[in-house]
Amino acid sequence: MPNWVGGEPPDTPARLESELQYPAVNERPPARDAKVVSEEEQAKIERELAAARETQAKKAAQVKKDRAGMLANQPKPTAPAAVPSNQ
């Protein structure tokens, strides 16, 4: 069929001989090989994460303190008020 009557353009690839298979919806996935983390291991991991967060917070506070003097838009110091002279 020509393109002007709703057909496909001449450079369209040919259709597949057989249709693609749909994925099996009702099949269960295979069992996982990974083991479950024990309560002791989980507690250890949580302690390590808390220590890492604490270390990062300390470093961030130090960097913030160090950079406080490096800000580009620091407020300019106010000049002392001129004392009027009695002349």
Query: What class would the helix/strand composition place it in?
Result: mainly alpha
Specify the helix fraction band. Answer: 25-40%
Strand content: under 5%
Could you state the order of secondary-structure elements as H and E?
H
Major beta sheet, specifics? none
Could you give the count of β-strands?
0
In DSSP terms (H or I, runs of 4 or more residues), the helix count works out at 1
- Return the average pLDDT rounded to an integer: 82
What overall geometry do the principal axes of the alpha carbons give?
A: flat
- Alpha-carbon distance between the termini? 106 Å
Radius of gyration from the CA trace? 36 Å
Low-confidence stretches: none
Summary keywords:
mainly alpha; 87 residues
Question: Can you put this structure into words, describing what you see?
Answer:
By secondary structure, the chain is mainly α. It is 33% helix and 0% strand. It contains one helix and no strands. 0% of the residues are buried. The mean pLDDT is 82.
Helix-strand blueprint:
Elements: H1 39-67
Entry summary:
The protein is an all-alpha fold and 87 residues long. It is built from 1 helix and no strands.
